[in-house]
Each structure stands twice: as C-alpha cells, then as structure tokens.
Design brief:
The complex is a heterodimer of chains A (about 375) and B (about 300). Chain A contains 8 helices and 19 strands. Chain A is of the alpha+beta class and about 375 residues long. In chain A, the strands form 4 sheets. Chain A has a 6-stranded mixed sheet, sandwiched between helices. In chain A, strands 13-12-11-14-19 form a 5-stranded antiparallel sheet. A two-stranded antiparallel ribbon of chain B has the order 1-2. Classes of the chains: A alpha+beta (about 375), B mainly alpha (about 300). The interface between A and B is medium-sized, with 29 and 23 residues.
Chain lengths: ~375, ~300
C-alpha cells in the first residue's frame, strides 16, 4: 500500500520556532514541537489558541510567517499541500458531495495515479467498516458515517502524518465516545502519526499518547495525560484539564526535598520536585478528588463549612468554604467511606503532600477555567 | 434526489394531524394559480386555436376563421427556416460567450471578492436599472462607426478602413450576450457560493493541484448553476427580437423578428402563432435533452 509516496522518507514531524501573524495578531507565537513518528499526538486548547492554525500550517493550507516545518529530513515549510504526504480529516468532513463514497476515498489515489485503486479503497472502507456504503453519496450518510469516510479518504493515501481537525466536534456524545475508541484502533492498526486538534480535554486525554496544551499561540505544557493532570506546571493547564483547587500561598522554606508554605496562617507541605517555580509567591494546587473530608494529614484545613453538595452517581461533589472564605471543590467517591454531609455542616479537609503541586503565584488563579465548553 | 426524498419521507415517522383537510395549501396556491390561468393558460389556448385558423377568401385583413389547418405549421416553418435556425445559432453563441464571461466573474465574486462581494453583486444587476431597449440602443453607439471600438480597431494595420460592427451578426450576438449576462452570472454565483471552501482545501490536501481541483470539484459542484444560467440565457435569447432589430440587418433577422412582424405588421396571426408554438416546442425539447444529458436532477 505504501509503495508510491510523494516523498519517501519517514520520520518525526518537527516544527521549529514557527509563528503565524495576521496583522498584529499572533495566532501562533514562536512554537517548537517534535512529534515522534507513529505517535498519537493531541493539540489541546480553547478556541482561538492557535491549534487549528498550527494544524493548517502542517497541512500546507497556511504558510508560517516564520520558522520551518520538517518531516524527517524533508523541509515542507513552503511545499504546496498537494505535494505533501500529509492528509487531513477536516472539521465537518468536507466530503465531495458530487462523488460516491467510493470515488471520495479514491480521490487521492487517482490524483497520484496509483494502480490498484479498487483494492486500496476496499481495504480503507473495510478499515472503517463501511464497505457496504461504497455506492452512496455523502448526503445519504449519517454524521458518524461521514466522519469515518473522511478518515478512510485520508488514510487510504498512507500519509506520513494524518491531521484531524476537531473531527468529532459535530457528533453527539455517545457517538463521540465510540469514535474515540475507533480512531485509536485505526491509529494502532495503521501506525501513522496522528495529530489531533481538539478543545475537548477528555477527548485528548482518552486518545493521545502525548498532549500539547496550547494557549494564546504558545504551548503551555506538553506531556502524557497523567503528567498534565497530576503535575501541571501552569494555572492554565491545571484549570483546563479537569477541575482544580488553587490556593495563594507563600514559601517559607525549601529544604529536605520539600517546600513549606503558608496560606492565611495554615502551613502546608509540597514535595520540591512538584514546585515548578523559584518564586516565593506560589499557587498551591490540589485536585478535588485528592481532598479528603478528614483532619489527620500534614496538609489540612480545619473549621470549613459545606456550602453546596451535588450527587453525580459515582461521586458526590461538595463545595467547601475555608475559614478565609475561599471555596474549594471536593469529590468524594460513593463507597463505604462516604460522609454524606449536608449544606452547613462543619468539616475539615486534608490531603497528601505528594498530591500537591506548586505553581508560579504571578498567574491568574482562574486562567483556563470554564474555557473547555466554548466553541 | 429521488432517493433523498424517500429517505426523509421514511424518517419523518407517522404523519401528524396537520395534514388532514387543511385548506391552507390551496389558499396559498390560489393567487399564483389564478394568475397563471388568466395570463398563461387562456392566452396559450387562444394562441393554439389561432395557429390553425385560415383567412377566408376576400375577407378583411385580420379576419380569420377556425379550420384546423395544421399545414399552417409546415408553411410557416418552410417560409422562415433560415431565421429559425439562425435564432438557435445566435442564442447558442450568446450562451457560450456569456458562460465564458460569467464563470470567471461569478467565481471571483464568490471566492475572492471579500468585503466587495455585495458591491459587485449590485453591479451585476445594475444594468436592470435601465430599460432593456435603451441598453440595446446604447450598443449601437458603442459599436457605431464613430464609436470607441471601431475607431480603436481601425488603428490596427490589418483592419480595413471600411470595417463596421453595427448591422452585423457580431453586433447581434454581442447584444444578446450582454443583455442576458446577469441571468448567467447570478445562478453561477449562487451555486459557486454554496460550495464549501473546505471541499476545495480537501481536494488540494488529496494531491489535486489548482487546475485539477477546479476540474474535478469546482466545476461539477457548480453544474446546477451552469445549467440554470445557460437555460436562463438560451431560452430568452432564442426568442429575442430587439437585439436583431436594433443591432442587426435584414440578414440577421431572428425568429422573434418574424413573429413580431407577422403579428403587428402583416397581421398574419395564424403564421405568428404557429411559429411561436414551434419555437416553444423546440426549446422544450432542447431543454429536456440538455437536462437529461447533464443529469442535474441528481446533483445535490
């Protein structure tokens, strides 16, 4: 299948200090990135963060204002899209409405003069399990089916890099879950580098090996889903991926592998390895499910009050007010240890130092919060 | 298309009660129906009946009696064969020219005009603000012997001093092309504008260069506009008489001119009616073949 390629070499995709300006607006700002060959990579960020522009520059639909893009040894920065061995699954699919499904999938093969079009198309349609729809027109397919045809149409060309631009955005939740698993399976099967652009943090975390969180044209942090979730290095990442409690605090000492910090008269400990700043003014962060409604731990806050409670099936989510009027979110699993508190109940909070992280205190506490739903 | 209708039909589930015995659809149809019956059906019946009438021996000019003489058609056609065929040749030439001019124009307005789009669209329809007749008369000035085009052309070494453009087939076809250009441009624009630019990007992404993208994606997707535009140009152009009357000479007369003079100058109603019907029938057949050929009913 891969015997006729536009360019022969395979390798990592390297973006070297690329920027894209529209007038004074910096859509992408001095971004460098290496995507290893064969990985499932996600560019995650709110709308307007520059992720789609980055993707379009890789596809060749936009030219970078500065910087270079390489696949392996080949510089593709200014190469025309039809010369790159990169294919895109467009948002809303962009299938050709006048062609049958078969001809849609065959389009790229025919342009490159590949011999055995029928076998290749059949194989690609089988991969997405829609071989029986070959003679239909795109307008006769459901959204989920069109989405899979868009994947087949791109993948049949065996690109070195497959770009997916919010490919699941138009699908309903249940179908989206199904397609996430499906796309993951297809990626494993074909072994092509996938770059998936999304604003849905859950989608990125479910599918990608590596996630780059983008904000205002820059990469905030890059790593595995676990890394980003358990050890975020900026307030934006902490808030954008899941929910997070951030408390303003001052570092009192850094010694013995731990930082001792104080906030409103309370003393907390953070492992030094999890403090990502030299600044003494920090944001102490802890995820809602790491908080326990108890008072035994090293890091604890007493005399808190429950101000809200909502039962969400697997867990109960509490809003708890500290003595200095800061509201913290607490998730408690619905198992034997359940406290079943009511609004107004007095309560203490505690958590382990190794679940705590320290971020630079100069940041906005709310950066990246409530952004994941807008589109 | 037919398939799509069935698909939506089945998915819409059981019919609701709204459908039962509602007069609303008929009331909404009524004004149009009444209009059509009064101004289309009646005249056409009257025209049909006129077409087979005969003027009795010695009767006054303009007096005709019904004798169901279908040979009128053959006589009329044989007498005016030349103008008849010329009409379709001129109309076809004007349609091709209009398509060649309007396609790039509509493409530019649809994809490249940015904020000037609305201004350009207004300019496309702007000629309609002046009367059709006046605009055609204006062309006699433009193409006239002292006009800008002829005097410019005469500067070229190989152009003869006696060259003229008015009263030539060129002038008639130019006039037809010009007068029906908006009818070509607007449907083309409408169908080009509907194309999702992402399908064009997708084509480029799938190894098609700009020309292949145009040929394989843009043109097929704009085909409904091409069909609509060519019909809206060809049909009125084939029956037009103003352009040939104003810009032509006796040798460029079209069937419209014949019908006009038969009706109003010669007062030979049966021949005029028979010619009108023959023209209508020919256009209908051509259009049917054309739509069949382009398969437009299958397009989205």
């Amino acid at each position: 299948m891969a015997n006729q390629k536009v360019s022969q070499d395979t390798g990592d995709l390297v973006l070297n200090r690329i920027s894209k300006f529209y007038g004074d607006f910096k859509a992408v700002d001095d971004l460098s990135l290496t995507v290893p060959d064969g990985s499932f990579f996600a560019l995650l960020g709110p709308s307007g963060c520059g992720k789609t522009t980055t993707l379009r520059m890789i596809a060749g639909l936009e030219e970078p204002s500065q910087g270079t893009i390489h696949i392996g040894e080949t510089d593709i920065t200014t190469q025309k899209p039809y010369r790159r061995n990169v294919n895109t699954v467009f948002q809303n699919y962009a299938l050709f409405p006048h062609l049958t499904i078969f001809e849609n999938v065959a389009f790229g093969l025919r342009r490159r003069g590949i011999k055995d079009v029928k076998a290749e198309v059949d194989k690609a349609l089988a991969l997405v399990e829609l071989g029986h729809l070959a003679e239909r027109k795109p307008g006769q397919l459901s959204g989920g089916q069109q989405q899979r045809i868009a994947v087949a149409r791109a993948i049949v060309n065996r690109p070195e890099v497959l770009l997916l631009d919010e490919p699941l955005g138009a699908l309903d939740l249940k179908l989206r879950r199904q397609m996430q698993i499906e796309l993951k399976r297809i990626q494993m099967e074909v072994g092509i580098t996938f770059i998936h652009v999304t604003h849905d943090q859950e989608e990125a975390m479910t599918m990608a090996d590596t996630i780059a969180v983008m904000n205002q044209g820059k990469i905030e942090q890059m790593g595995s889903a676990t890394d980003l979730y358990e050890a975020p290095r900026t307030a934006f990442v902490a808030n954008f991926l899941g929910q997070c409690n951030l408390i303003k605090a001052k570092v009192q000492s850094r010694a013995g592998g731990k930082a001792v910090v104080t906030a409103k008269g309370h003393t907390f400990e953070i492992p030094l390895s999890r403090v990502s700043t030299e600044n003494d003014s920090i944001l102490l962060g802890v995820r809602p499910e790491k908080l326990r409604l108890d008072d035994k731990g090293i890091n604890s806050i007493k005399d808190c009050v429950v101000t809200d409670r909502s039962f969400v099936g697997t867990s109960t989510q509490y809003l708890v007010r500290t003595p200095w009027d800061l509201e913290l979110v607490v998730f408690e699993q619905n198992d034997e240890g359940l406290h079943d508190l009511r609004v107004g109940d007095k309560v203490s909070l505690e958590w382990d130092p190794e679940h705590t992280f320290g971020l630079d205190g100069a940041q906005d506490v709310n950066a990246g919060a409530d952004l994941d739903d807008d589109e | 298309m037919a398939f799509l209708h069935t698909a939506t039909g089945t998915s819409s589930g059981p019919k609701s009660g709204i459908k039962s015995k509602s007069w609303t659809p008929y009331l909404l149809l009524a004004p149009g129906l009444i209009w059509l019956i009064t101004f289309f059906i009646f005249p056409i019946i009257s025209l049909a009946s006129t077409s087979t009438m005969v003027r009795p021996e010695g009767a006054q000019i303009g007096t005709y009696v019904q004798e169901l003489r279908f040979a009128n058609y053959i006589d009329a056609f044989q007498a005016n064969q030349e103008q008849y065929i010329r009409s379709f040749i001129y109309a076809a030439l004007a349609t091709i020219l209009a398509l060649a001019i309007a396609y790039p124009l509509a493409y530019m307005i649809a994809f490249k005009s940015g904020k000037y789009r609305n201004i350009l669209l207004v300019l496309v329809v702007a000629p309609f603000f002046t009367s059709f007749l006046l605009r055609t008369v204006a062309w006699t000035q433009i193409l006239g012997d002292e006009g800008p085009i002829v005097s410019t052309l005469k500067l070229l070494p190989f152009v003869d001093e006696s060259m003229r453009l008015t009263s030539t087939p060129f002038a008639v076809v130019s006039g037809l092309t010009y007068n029906f250009l908006p009818f070509m441009t607007l449907p083309l624009y409408a169908s080009l504008e509907r194309i999702d630019p992402r399908t064009l990007e997708a084509s480029g992404d799938l190894y098609a260069n700009a020309f292949t993208t145009f040929r394989k994606v843009t043109v097929p997707l704009s085909l409904p506009g091409v069909v609509a535009g060519t019909l809206l140009t060809f049909i009125p152009a084939a029956g037009d008489y103003i352009n040939a009357a104003i810009l032509g000479n006796p040798n460029t007369r079209m069937i419209g001119n014949v019908i006009e003079s038969r009706f109003f100058a010669v007062v030979d109603y049966p021949t005029a009616a028979a010619l009108s019907f023959t023209l209508m029938a020919t256009i209908l057949i051509l259009v049917t073949l054309y739509i069949r050929r382009t398969n437009t009913d299958e397009l989205v």
